[in-house]
Amino acid sequence: MPIRMRLALVVGAASLALFVVGGFIGVWFLSRGLNETLDGHLARKARVISSALTVDNQHGIAPTSLGSHPIDLQRLDKRRGAAALQVFGPHGVSVGFGATVEHLIPRTRLIAALHHSGYLNLAIGSPPDPIRVFVSQIGGMPGWDLAIGLSSASNQEAVREVELDIIIAGGVAVVIATAGAWLLAGAALAPVERLRRRTAEISEHDLTARLDVPDTSDELAALARTMDDLLARHQGTLARQRSFIADAGHELRTPLAVLSGELEMAGRPGRSPDELVQAVRRAKEETDRVSHLAQDLLLLATVDEGRLALAVEPFATSEVLEAAVAFRESRAIERDVRLSIQIGAGTETVVGDALRLRQAIDNLLDNALRMAPPGSIVEIRTTITDEADEIVLEVRDEGPGFAPGFIPHAFDRFARPAGSRDRSTGGAGLGLAVVRSIAEAHGGRVEAVNGRAGGARVRIVLPQPGGRPRGNIGTAGKD
Length: 479
Description:
There is one protein chain. The chain is an alpha+beta fold and 479 residues long. It folds into three domains: 3-159, Beta-Lactamase (2-Layer Sandwich); 219-302, Helix Hairpins, CATH 1.10.287; 309-463, Heat Shock Protein 90 (2-Layer Sandwich), CATH 3.30.565. 50% of the residues lie in helices and 18% in strands. A five-stranded antiparallel sheet has the order 6-5-9-8-7. The protein has a five-stranded mixed sheet with strand order 11-13-14-16-15, covered by helices on one side. A two-stranded antiparallel ribbon has the order 1-2. Strand 1 and strand 2 form a beta hairpin. The longest helix is centred in the first third of the chain and has 49 residues, at 3-51. The radius of gyration is 51 Å and the shape is elongated. Mean pLDDT is 75; it is low at 62-81, 96-104 and 467-479.
């Protein structure tokens, strides 16, 4: 059911309930007020009639004079406006004037009313005429009681008229409230419908489309701005994914083309054994390149899906770093570069995933060896922050360092400085992105800077158990 209809029905039901409860309370108070007015009138009449009656031992009761005029008991009920009048003596003697009540209700009930509230509701005649009866003792005449009643038809008629008015007014009010809620909800939801239509019009191929944000400061404008920001983020993600796929395809195409060419050349007749060995060696290099690129792409895709699992446990820092250096030793010798390890005090043990951190160190060593000049040193250094709550793994080289404008983008995917597209000096641009993903998965961070004397410095900062990770590296890893 649409929100507009639900809101209109809720308002209509609430209005109906309000009028029912309010009308019931109003009618109850009106009926009570009218009865109290009638009861007061009966009580006053009873006092007047009681003062006009005296006891006569032979005739039972007799009228007295009101002032200098005698009171005619046969007309007393009409003169005083009584619809029913009955006097009871101490021995069951009953004297009636006008319409009597004795034959309509037992004396015992009248006596019970006398001792309870003093009031009864009766119906006399055909069709029945509702009357309100008041029963009281006659003052100065022990054992004598008086029952007097007045018609309550006018009161009941007034209550019925009020009830009818409330029903009519309530029905009209409920209809107006429901229609008003329907129109108000339609006006309030119109901007939402416009946003919905605009959102539905945006194609997945349109990376620049935006929503029409109203120039207001209400909740709908805030919703539109939030949706617009979400759309911009999704469009940015889609653009990065497309660029990621295009760059990955470009990076994979080159080594695959080289591999295909080498294999084709190796298959030609007349090749010497040395040429075949050389072709196989180059083919293996390209296969390793493709394999490494595929592993990086798989890790980044796993990170994007939030499924990168870590086996976090303490491990010896020297074992991981020495294994990484040993794996790159032959390549370092080919480039005439020396690899060095310096483990600072307090960093002999690191808490983290040893395999993933080894992968990050391998990527940093690959980049450093690619840029380090012959005869230089590539150093792996571990330090601890002054607060002893973070460990820093740093790889240094003596190459040209990072271009100043490239440092903010060094850890972006497929980010490479201008002029580094050559296969010998520029990788696929995923190595540092993988390093950042691994560090962030450990709750850490990365930083790329240039040394004061030249060369690049890439740091992985890892929080340790009980530490307090901060937004900068502090004094660790200074040149």
